[in-house]
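> Could you send the Aromatic amino acid aminotransferase prediction when you get a chance?

Sure thing. Input:
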Amino acid sequence: MTEKTPRLRAALEAVPTYKPGKPAAADGPVAYKLSSNENPYPPLPGVLESAVAAAGSFNRYPDMACTGLMAELAEHFGVPLTHLATGTGSVGVAQQLVQATAGPGDEVVYAWRSFEAYPIITQVSGATPVQVPLTEGDVHDLDAMLAAITDRTRLIFVCNPNNPTGTVVRRAELEAFLDRVPSDVLVVLDEAYREFIRDEAVPDGIDLYRDRPNVCVLRTFSKAYGLAGLRVGFAVAHEPVAAALRKTAVPFGVSQVAQDAAVASLRSEKALGERVDALVAERTRVAAALAGQGWTVPESQANFVWLRLGELALDFAAACERAGVVVRPFPGEGVRVTIGETEANDLFLRAAEEFRKEL
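Output:
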């Protein structure tokens, strides 16, 4: 008798597996991890103390409504409490959005290449991903995305700045795009890297959402705030969407440690600004050095830079690893490099220079 195994959804066979950034080797020559867009700084002032205090009661469930954090976010961003929802990082909230809007027969539109979780969360929901290629400059092609909308489109992701290219969509073109999207299609402005933007022509998504009921903004504490290991993100959206997000959230998904750390982070705005400014200065230095070496580097408004290397991506990543830094290759396309400590950035730049000389 043939032993049978549990029957799983056949659709899962086509779902790609999320690939995290490769960690630095614990016992090898690699010293720095520049593969996951993590913040190299320790927690902001007061954050560790808040987290440790909360950890003393983790035998209890966290506040499922995230009451303290929601109140802090409402005040910080000037939005109603009913327009907020939290989740396990902005990617967790993104998955809730897909679950709330799209199922079998529905379509989710996004640029490609963009955040690699989009096709995963779309296909897990049973919906159909519609990938719209970036322009030659690695920017969202908003006209092509508009043309991709059908009567089956339920949700559109606009990653701004875009991961992994770091490029941005500016106000005039984004507003024109939003004005042309059907009002019953939800547009999600994924702003995980918002704090690193220095281009004044890039709008704050929260400003755009206020008078547009079909716009939702995603933010996270993982990047600029440096809470990647605690998994806390949030959405700002009009009440029907925010209420749906609260329905699709995993119960007790955001730990009390994460909630209290996020509140303390919001209250440490001055220190946050100083750290982000330092990372932006390093981003400028790294991009200028790469351009000086002869590389073509799209202007990044995030905490990473992108090199479109095509078939050389894996070779380049291997060369960086030998030099002491781990970067994030996308085979056949390019390499994303997080802006880290000055020492790490210097190691990367030396590796890039040596690789360039051998081409």
